[in-house]
Amino acid sequence: AQSVTQPDIHITVSEGASLELRCNYSYGATPYLFWYVQSPGQGLQLLLKYFSGDTLVQGIKGFEAEFKRSQSSFNLRKPSVHWSDAAEYFCAVGPNYGGSQGNLIFGKGTKLSVKP
Amino acid sequence: EAGVAQSPRYKIIEKRQSVAFWCNPISGHATLYWYQQILGQGPKLLIQFQNNGVVDDSQLPKDRFSAERLKGVDSTLKIQPAKLEDSAVYLCASSPIRGGSPLHFGNGTRLTVT
Per mean pLDDT, which range of B19-23, B46-50, B98-102 is the poorest? Predict the structure, then answer.
């Protein structure tokens, strides 16, 4: 079955500390991979995406993610967290074919809190 | 560019009542999606349109949910009759047709069924 697992429901980090949010997926073929961020009362905003090629992808707001096929993982990282990064983060997978994006499967999300 | 517009932002109804949500996608985006996000969970696709045709509605509870996208632009999602478990945020998203294009989400409609 296709699924996305984000093992950490809630993470708290200190401002300026590094961050890693975990994402594991189960998918029948090589998928498209995404990380979205959602602030309270807002829709989801795309942070970064992986389609093919370099397995380390850079996104907005200083985020990066690394695709590891052998581990079926796509972990999100940021070297130094800012208070404005407090939000909920969703990992998602989708079908990798030439047409429209199709059905994205989302994880349950990881809520990030940042302490001063 | 203007983002995906949704209305209303909030809606409270009693069970067995009906409700409708409206979405206006980004201009030129042929693909439109409705997602349901229950508290504590990630969004789940309800229905996907390409222009005014349905691409995927396999997870839409068709006995109570309906959606349309007349003229391939705006879309309406309706629930009739609503149940308590329909309480959720309903997100609309749009994207161009070309493969791998990211989804652009609206701010959602928060529905509370009492």
Answer: B98-102
Are A36 and A53 within 8 A, CB to CB?
no
Asked if the model's pLDDT at residue B4 lies above 90, the reply is yes
Note the residue count of chain B: 114
Which of A81, A89, A103 lies closest to A31, judged by CA? A103
Residue A45: its chain B contacts at CB < 8 A?
Answer: 105
pLDDT digits 0-9 by tens, A11-44: 999 999 999 999 999 987 778 899 999 998 888 9
Contacts of A80 (CB under 8 A, 6+ apart): A16, A17, A18, A62
CB B19 within 8 A of CB B38: no
- Rounded distance, CA A26 to CA A72, Å? 7
Query: Is B107's CB within 8 Å of A51's CB?
Result: no
Q: Is B15's pLDDT higher than 90?
A: yes
Rounded Cα gap, residues B48 and B73, in angstroms? 13
CB contact under 8 A, B103 and A44: yes
Q: Per DSSP, which regions of A1-116 are E strands?
A: 3-5, 10-14, 19-21, 24-26, 32-38, 44-50, 56-58, 64-68, 73-78, 87-94, 105-106, 110-115
